[in-house]
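dumping the sequnces here before i forget
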Amino acid sequence: MDRYGGIEAGGTKFVCMVGSGPESISAEVRFPTTNPAETLSRTIAFFREQQQMAPLAAVGVGCFGPLDLDPASPTFGAITTTPKPGWANTHLVRALEQALHVPVVIDTDVNAAAYGEYVWGAARGVSQFIYNTIGTGIGAGAIIQGEPIHGLLHPETGHIRIPHDHGVDPFPGDCPYHGDCFEGLASGNALRRRWGVPAEKLADDHPGWELEAHYLALALVNQICMVSPQRVVLGGGVMKHASLFPRVRARVQEYLNRYIDRPEIQGEIEDYIVPPALGDRSGCLGAIALAQHKERDWRLEIKE
Amino acid sequence: MDRYGGIEAGGTKFVCMVGSGPESISAEVRFPTTNPAETLSRTIAFFREQQQMAPLAAVGVGCFGPLDLDPASPTFGAITTTPKPGWANTHLVRALEQALHVPVVIDTDVNAAAYGEYVWGAARGVSQFIYNTIGTGIGAGAIIQGEPIHGLLHPETGHIRIPHDHGVDPFPGDCPYHGDCFEGLASGNALRRRWGVPAEKLADDHPGWELEAHYLALALVNQICMVSPQRVVLGGGVMKHASLFPRVRARVQEYLNRYIDRPEIQGEIEDYIVPPALGDRSGCLGAIALAQHKERDWRLEIKE
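..and the predicted 3d for all of it:
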């Protein structure tokens, strides 16, 4: 079976794997994201060592953004305007292709994770769904007709505007661009700044969880009304708090108020709003799945 | 050239056309939407008369919803839970196929209009965009990778939740399901109820237009962040007020606050947020385009 490389290029850590699916990962390494030169050279060293054992067919990358994903652009495959020091205008795809001499596929971290859940995880069998990660920040990937969507740029769902009742929640939001957008109100960073402790330290009966469920449900209602996903996956560190899933599901039903009259929402909503099945490996496995998917396309193109 | 039928099945009127594109409509009829029996029999009579002159290859329908668009469902092609008296559970596709003996394609009114704008109108050349109609109600269709999207049901973008400052705008919203959702705040009906006069009677300098632009811009920001469309089309009666387009464009730029760093938004936003090019024919022409598109697929399937 062909071996693929997968990279989850995150803002705090890089995860690199070699394999062809969740049951066949033969090597894995994790290290902190420092500056681009050091981080890329560790990445390249890992895959070169792997290539000495056996060739890699392709490498997939799920990367923090914003990214240039326009194949016609001269800066295709680069990280563009990130505020992360040193990383703006990093030509990730070019650097990896030049060093490893294999095709490299790139997508956003959340589109890669969504694709991993689509191929091997919680979204098998549906062709249209949304994957959200509620962590330090908030991001979402979307699969439509079996493909991650891009468009003008790529989804930036963390920055949608949702209702914010300043009387109930005087916290102004902490998004540097938009203040009280979805991410500004509901990310792990927002929780920490609003309550003065990290999310994982908030007591189970803290009113912050009910408020969090409220904001998550508003954002999910918007996703359901706008994209009509067949399933919604909610991952990320904040979702590890056990009470959130039942609270979010109940509020989504309440806020939709039977308008979307489908059994998936009115009935078995436990199967509609779900955690990821690949845990914290969604992103890196998704990068491998993207590499496999694209490599098959390239082979077909060559044959034609 | 093959002749196709197109039907815009609206809540207040039906439009039926025969032709193969905007420049080749050979017959057209419009009549009010009354009860299903009468309305469908007028529709069928028009197309039968047309069939006596020359055959129709297929008929497309863009219909008010919600619709059952799941091809595996026994009620595929039916209007489902509409509050419109008499129309719930109307099997539109079945009735037309049985009477006209041609393949019938159905989609939502807004997906059909979006598809018309994609094939012949304001969205030619882009593969991912959103079409909004801001009329008595609010609806949106979405084309992604060149196809109208459906998913669990179909988009119901009028019902997303957006910020509502009750201090600035004490109107509670008029959506019977959600109160102050996007449609409840910004539809033609909402304007009429908030200000006591129909939208077309509001003076040019009435503060209602600035408020309307604010709500439209919030909804567009959510669409842009969630779906990353390459263009946004804004149609419908309310958009005929000339001052709305420049106001909405300026506010979208302001609310995105340079976060989506693309020239389409920062620069030539006049080419990004645009009116429909087919005017009030988008829906019916789009139904014809859908019929052509699907009929080609069927012919390919038969050949295989």
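Chain B touches chain A through 48 residues (CB under 8 Å).
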